[in-house]
Design goal:
Oligomer: single chain
Helix content: 40-55%
Strand content: 15-25%
Shape: elongated
Number of helices: 9
Radius of gyration: 20 Å
Structural class: alpha+beta
Number of strands: 7
Low-confidence stretches: none
Distance between the termini: 38 Å
């Protein structure tokens, strides 16, 4: 969480908020099985929402220009992520596929996965996360084009409300040549095994 926001809430206050929710749900937070739950929940939040303390742009700052003239598409598929819906605070679990056409410089592939992590570990809506990942890559690397496809299962839909399982949501953001050139877009979708005709 952003330090400027979190600094106004102490860990003790956060743990007390969990106790309040336990009481509201009908539980006794003083019973043996729940005594350590507030501490565990706050620690889990520190992990789940660690993305607020990260600057995704920094991951892409170190690039490599000695690539032997390589100027074809670079694709990193199946980047697993875990996020949380900002509407219900329920998990969103899925995969991200990232592609870009370099313009003289490339970045280590683990850095692309770190960009995904930095945005996923925040309260999110999938559409916004998709745009944030693509925007970051375009802004920092300035490639000829970027494509991002995100697939997610939303627990706010499977465990509450309509209770529909086996449903996944697909979002995409195409920039530069990925948006302007149908052949580039189709090549990217072939690489990640998504049929543009469906």
């Amino acid at each position: 969480m952003a330090d400027d926001i979190r600094n106004h809430v102490t860990r003790q206050q956060a743990e007390e908020a969990v106790r309040t929710l336990l009481r509201w749900a009908g539980e006794d937070p003083t019973r043996e099985g729940l005594l350590e739950t507030p501490k565990r929940v706050v620690s889990a939040y520190e992990d789940w929402f660690s993305g607020y303390a990260l600057d995704p742009d920094e991951y892409l700052a170190r690039t490599f220009e000695e690539v032997g003239g390589y100027d074809e598409m670079i694709v990193l598929r199946d980047i697993a992520y875990e996020s949380h819906c900002e509407h219900h605070m329920a998990p969103i679990i899925g995969k991200v596929h990232v592609g870009y056409l370099p313009d003289g410089k490339v970045v280590g592939i683990s850095k692309l996965a770190r960009v995904v992590e930095a945005y996923a570990r925040r309260f999110q809506v999938q559409e916004k996360m998709t745009a944030q990942i693509a925007g970051c890559i375009q802004r920092v690397l300035q490639p000829r084009g970027v494509g991002v496809v995100v697939v997610g299962t939303h627990e706010c839909m499977t465990t509450r409300g309509i209770h529909k399982r086996g449903v996944s949501m697909v979002t995409s953001k195409m920039l530069g040549s990925f948006r302007e050139d149908a052949r580039t877009r189709a090549e990217f979708l072939r690489f990640i095994e998504v049929d543009p005709g469906r």
